[in-house]
Specification:
With 427 residues, this protein is α/β, with parallel strands linked by helices. Helix content is 48%, strand content 12%. It has 19 helices and eleven strands. The longest helix has 19 residues.
C-alpha cells in the first residue's frame, strides 16, 4: 500500500476540474503529470492552473503531455492517479484499461466523478485496481471551494480510504465529507434537485425573475441559473440524467431536463464557456436573458418585488433573522416560490441523512458540503433562520412536505455562526 504521495498523474488535465485540482496538488510541492488527449490541451490546463494560483512557481512541479506519448511512463511512476475525464462511463473505462495495464502495484486510483456509480467504474478490473480505487470529488474551483467528498466501494481497502482522507485533509487542506457510494453523493444530489426545480419554474416565470427571487439574499453566493451558466448546461444535463437513472427517492419526479433546455443545448448555448446560456453579455456590458418561450434573448426587466427588496435591505444591514421574518410573512405567487424552494432544500437535505451520508454523521456532513462545496447557507442555518425546528416542521407539514425523520426526531443546532454574511449577501 502507498504510504506517501510524491508523484501524481492527472488524467483529463485539459478540463477545469483536472487542471485546477492538479494545480492545487502542485502548489504543495508534489510532482504532477498533466495528461490529456493532446499536449496542447494539457498546456492549456497548465495555463489555467497558473492563473488560478496567481503564480508561475507551480509550473516547476508540472509536466505536460498526452496519452499517446507519456501515459505509460507517468503511470509507472505515480503514487496517485487522479482521473478527471468526461462524465461518460465508456470514456472512463477505456482509460481505466490503460491504467490497469501500466500502473504499479499499490498505486491509488481515484475519480472525480460524483454522478456515475463507482461499482460500474470498478467492475471487472484486477484486485489491485479495485482495492486501491475510490472517489475523491473535489468542488470547483478548489482554491475557493474546500469541500471534498470521499467515497469507497465494497472492495476498497479501508487503509487506503483512511490514508487518502488524512492526505486530503492535512496536505491539501480539504474539508472532508465521507459519503456513501450513491450517485450524486451529497452535494450534487441536493443542489441539482434544486437546480432542476428552478429550470422548470423558469419556463413560467422567466430566467431573470427566478434568479432575482432565489438570489444571494436567500443564502447562496450566486443565483441558481447564473451558477448553471458557470457549471455548463451540458454538465447540468449529464448530472440530472445520471441522478434520474441511478437514484429513486421521494422527489425523483422533479429530476427533469425541460424541452427548452434541450433546445439551448442543440443551439450550443452551454453557458459561460460558449459566451451564452441563461445569460448573454452584450458588447455594451449589459446582460440579456434567455426566454424559454421564444428561445431567444430578451432585455432585462429589472424585477422589483416588495418583500424581496425589504429582505435584501435587512440582509444589507446584517439583520438576517428580520429578513427571514419578512420572507415568512410575505404573500403572493413570488413569496410562494421562495418559500417552496426553501422548504424543498431543507426537507430534501435532511431526508438524505442515512441515504448519502451515514446517520451518525447527521446534518453536520450535509452542512459541510453545502457550505464548503457550494457556498450555500447550510440546511441547519436555514432551519434557524426560519424559526427553529418546531417552526420548520409546522411549515413543512402545512405545505404538504414529508417531514424527514431525522429532522422530526433529532435536535437541530440553533446555529450561531458568527458570520452569516458568508451566505446572505446583499446585491
Amino acid at each position: 500500500m502507498i504510504d506517501t504521495i510524491k508523484n501524481v498523474v492527472v488524467l483529463g488535465a485539459s478540463g477545469t476540474v483536472g487542471s485546477l485540482t492538479g494545480g492545487l496538488i502542485a502548489q504543495n510541492g508534489i510532482k504532477v503529470y498533466f495528461l490529456s488527449r493532446t499536449a496542447d490541451g494539457s498546456k492549456r490546463g497548465l495555463e489555467r492552473a497558473v492563473a488560478a494560483a496567481r503564480s508561475e512557481v507551480i509550473a516547476r512541479n508540472i509536466v505536460c503531455g498526452d496519452y499517446q506519448h507519456l501515459l505509460a511512463e507517468a503511470l509507472k511512476e505515480a503514487d496517485w492517479i487522479l482521473e478527471a475525464v468526461a462524465e461518460k462511463l465508456e470514456v472512463k473505462r477505456q482509460l481505466y484499461e490503460k491504467i490497469q495495464q501500466y500502473k504499479r502495484p499499490g498505486s491509488i486510483v481515484s475519480t472525480t466523478t460524483s454522478s456515475l456509480p463507482l461499482t460500474q467504474l470498478a467492475k471487472g478490473w484486477s484486485a489491485d485496481f479495485r482495492t486501491n480505487f475510490l472517489s475523491t470529488h473535489f468542488y470547483n474551483p478548489p482554491g475557493r471551494m474546500l469541500a471534498c467528498e470521499i467515497a469507497a466501494t465494497a472492495d476498497t481497502d479501508p487503509q487506503v480510504l483512511e490514508f487518502m482522507t488524512d492526505f486530503l485533509k492535512t496536505k491539501l487542506r480539504r474539508v472532508i465529507v465521507p459519503v456513501r457510494n450513491v450517485a450524486g453523493f451529497a452535494g450534487n444530489r441536493i443542489a441539482f434537485l434544486l437546480f432542476s426545480r428552478i429550470t422548470v419554474l423558469a419556463q413560467q416565470y422567466g430566467v431573470e425573475l427566478m434568479d432575482y427571487l432565489i438570489g444571494p439574499y436567500t443564502g447562496r453566493l450566486m443565483p441558481p441559473l447564473a451558477t448553471l451558466d458557470l457549471v455548463g448546461l451540458d454538465i447540468h444535463k449529464a448530472i440530472i440524467e445520471s441522478l434520474s437513472a441511478n437514484t429513486n427517492d421521494e422527489m425523483h419526479n422533479q429530476l427533469v431536463v425541460p424541452d427548452y433546455l434541450e433546445r439551448m443545448l442543440d443551439k450550443g448555448l452551454l453557458g459561460r464557456k460558449t459566451g451564452a446560456g441563461f445569460y448573454k453579455k452584450l458588447e455594451s456590458g449589459k446582460y440579456v436573458f434567455f426566454d424559454p418561450e421564444t428561445c431567444d434573448y430578451i432585455p432585462a426587466i429589472q424585477p422589483h418585488v416588495s418583500f424581496v427588496e425589504k429582505a435584501r435591505h435587512f440582509i444589507h444591514m446584517g439583520m438576517y433573522r428580520n429578513a427571514f421574518d419578512v420572507i415568512k410573512s410575505a404573500a403572493g405567487p413570488e413569496a410562494e416560490i421562495v418559500t417552496d424552494l426553501l422548504c424543498t432544500y431543507i426537507a430534501y437535505s435532511f431526508a438524505r441523512i442515512g441515504d448519502v451520508v451515514d446517520p451518525q454523521a447527521g446534518i453536520d456532513a450535509v452542512d459541510s458540503v453545502m457550505s464548503s462545496g457550494f457556498n450555500w447557507a447550510p440546511p441547519s442555518v436555514m432551519v434557524s433562520m426560519l424559526g427553529g425546528k418546531k417552526a420548520v416542521v409546522e411549515l413543512l407539514e402545512k405545505r404538504g412536505f414529508i417531514v424527514p425523520l431525522f429532522l422530526r426526531d433529532n435536535d437541530v443546532p440553533h446555529n450561531q455562526i458568527p458570520n452569516f454574511g458568508k451566505y446572505f449577501i446583499a446585491r
